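Can you give me the bound-state structure? Components:
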Amino acid sequence: MTAGKPATLRRLRQEVARIEGVPTALETGDRVRPLGVAAIDAVLQGGLMPAALHEIAPQRMPDLGAACGFAAAMVALFAARPEPGRREVLWVQTDFAALESGRPYGPGYDLFGLPTRRLLLLSVPRPVDLLWAMEEALRSRALAAVIGELPQDGAIADLTATRRLTLAAREGDSLGLLLRHQPSPLTSSAETRWQVAAAPSRPDRFGGLGRTAFALSLTKNRRGPTGRWRVAWDHHECAFSTLSLGVVAAAVDRPDRTPLVRAG
Amino acid sequence: MWLRRLSTDRIERRSSVPGDAPLIVVEPVKGALRIAALNDAAAALGLTPGLSLADARARYAALQVAQAEPEADRALLAAVADWCDRYTPLVGVDAPDGLLLDITGCAHLFGGERAMARDMMLRLARQGLQARIGIAGTVGCASAVARYSRGGIVPSGGETAALAPLPPLALRIEPEIARLLAQTGLRCIADLTTRPRAPLAARYGQWLLRRLDQALGVEEESTAPRLPVPPYVAERRFPDPIGREDDVLGTVAQLAEELCLVMERRGEGARHIQTALFRADGKVYRIEAGAGQPLRDPQRIRRLFLERFAVVGDACDPGFGYDMIRLSTLVAERMEPVQSGLGAADAQAELAHLIDRLGARFGRQRVARLVMRDTHIPEHAVAMMPAHQAPPSPSWNDEQDSLAPIRPARMFATPERIDGVINEVPDGAPVRFTWRNASYHVAIAEGPERISPEWWRGESNPRPRDYFRIEVEEGFRAWIFRQDAVCRIKQIEDDGTERDILEPRTSWFLHGLMA
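Here's the bound-state model for the whole set.
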């Protein structure tokens, strides 16, 4: 162990980053967007990279709602400080994906922090069209974010395709989110890869539904280690918060039949 | 322009039948097959339209016979009309076998009327079509000269002289009236013009005199062009046809530059643009692209057509190449000059262009914005409007203080039925249910939120729905609803009598996934 090793390592990392063309945290400066959860931001070296591609997949099919919610939350965080004129979000979906698991429903996103008036929907006939549309939209410098949704594991978005999307995102300085309906075993050039599952929420004080809770697992991170967290999203404040472990215990402790609430 | 032998030319173009073989086209008239059209060779044998097929066969056994296809004739006429677009934008159809071209102010581009007519005849002949062209100051006169004399150019003011020897039928009147005129000895138009008008009108109707006046230019007559006349047009002709897509796109870009220059001078921008590709053998392809906002940037116009070609390119077979390309603005709109390079406005213009490009590629209906509508039926509360015409919509702003959103993030097009529902209390939320073959335990449920059908809109399924927001033990959330229905069941008693039983049925559906 020599004293110069960390310095050497850092230099080498920077060299690799330069060759790969990945902007380092230094270059991007304050442009990374913190998620607001210290543990995650530490792993991400400050926050999510803008001008990059990120992948999201639900752990199992019913978690798709949560995965969409997480994607919307990410975009809402990014759109909170928009560049002038770039406020719109394009959501691209293949026809099959829409048929199989529904379309984004406006009011749901309005309530979640992503205003419907900023949402543009595009449905395309084939997955390959989706890649084209995403690339075009990322490159256009007109949008705050582009979300592409592929049915099943989205096998069309392989290493080459994601590489193209990454380059387009960097060139157009936009956030790209690739939403697969199943986790994919394929290698990808995305900046981060998330597997999202819905977590049991902490009920509100009347025993009703609490804040949306996510069980996140970061399965790929180009700039640091991976990890698993449980977070909650406050859609009134547009902010993530840690779902403490105590909550999980509380969920176990609660009666097996929660008293039903008549709220309506 | 009269296409003398439209039907037979159409058939001869397709087959290898030598043009000098007699060919007739027959159609059923009052139960008998009669000649509807015939070629020159058949006409030379003394056959005439209207003769029955049996008679014709009796005279000449070696006739080629084909069935009449009015649809195909019409299509061919339309195709020729499209092609004639190269001479003038004002092309009207004079059914069943004529075209009216308003060449006012166009003829000099082709070296005068005579040269234009010769060019037209030559090019049509090359396509296997025989045409006779009459050029005159009035529609009626031109049509009469083309159909009932040898064609040619009638000098201005020479209408009366040109029409004089022609039969009254040339005035485009009913054959019945022409027959009545012939019975009274009025066999040419000169007989009509020299006669007092009042008795003619009294006996044969105003229509005859009107047609006469129109032909002589006393009364105005306008043609109805098939296609709207574009406000801006730029075109290029090639002595040698081009076929490569790159060349075509390059030409479109050059034309776009010309077009934009003119539009800029008038302070307008294009909302709807069309590229017309004139193939050397007469086929015309028209490719259109729309823009959400007035457009005046040649590069953007080129990009739009790049996308359009990517989609429809395969349908356009260049064949032996295009000998003319025309770019026209079909719809223009006022466009205020904008200072570029000021950030926000640029991004907005960029967005409009992106929407146009995506629309050009996938169809403009597919790029949509969500527009809220004033209804509380969940699936109707949001409409997808094409982005280029959607108004800015207010958000769904139902103040609520629940910690969880009260509407789902995704909604299925048709609610999915869930089975195996067990609930604790009859009207309560489910405790267990099965969806897509997996069974779930409900951990938290909120509801019911009753949504009643809008009877004033005439809903087809007037049953209220009771919605519940649920969270299952694993954590995922769904928006489900219960719908009660009353089923009428016929029951047959032991003694054989039938009895109707009304039985309530409850169905559960999963309508959306919540975040």
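A couple of observations. Chain A touches chain B through 74 residues (CB under 8 Å). The longest helix of chain A spans residues 5-20.
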